[in-house]
């Protein structure tokens, strides 16, 4: 893969930034694509742009605001509170089919760039009810995209079977632990680095980070 081009689906968050570092190690030429779907915090796109600039990869924003015409959810509508789903319910951040749409658009973009490798930070381990984050869906979409465009795409999902603790471990192996800790934006309230410390996303991130550091200390 060292001689080939890749496109990373990139949001400036912990997961996709870890994927970006992974891609930079695995591929000769790396591009990023970011989706603007009216996120509560355009800070997210600014953050992604800065990281792409710093790491020397191209940055392309696709306007996906049309997904707001399809469903109302907490990431794009400021009048809906961010909360975890009750048991058996999806979280309020859910946009049905979002990953499906984003990956499909990313594949068209990759084809234009002459790249057949697509990298996405989806993960089945912390599965919070998003069916289009599952491995079986990604494999199915890979076949569909190849048939749709008569191409030989390969969708890579380096985080698919990792929990948050292991994602931090991967960041460390890629010599990017402190970079990702300080520069990325995962917080639902738009605060970079360690974030607000209170939203579900910050808590998941912090717990994983602490668990990884504890394990590293024990092993040292
Ligand atoms: Zn937060």
From TrEMBL:
Q: Which positions bind Zn(2+)? A: 187, 196, 199, 202
What does the UniProt cofactor note say? Binds 1 zinc ion per subunit.
UniProt keyword annotations, A-Z? ATP-binding, Ligase, Metal-binding, Nucleotide-binding, Queuosine biosynthesis, Zinc
Q: Name one GO biological process term.
A: tRNA queuosine(34) biosynthetic process
One of its Pfam families is QueC
Give, as one word, the top-level EC class. Answer: ligase
Function as written in the Swiss-Prot or TrEMBL entry: Catalyzes the ATP-dependent conversion of 7-carboxy-7-deazaguanine (CDG) to 7-cyano-7-deazaguanine (preQ(0)).
Family statement drawn from the similarity comment of this UniProt entry: Belongs to the QueC family.
The name of this protein is: 7-cyano-7-deazaguanine synthase
What taxonomic classification does the UniProt entry list for its organism? Bacteria, Bacillati, Bacillota, Bacilli, Bacillales
Gene that produces this protein = queC
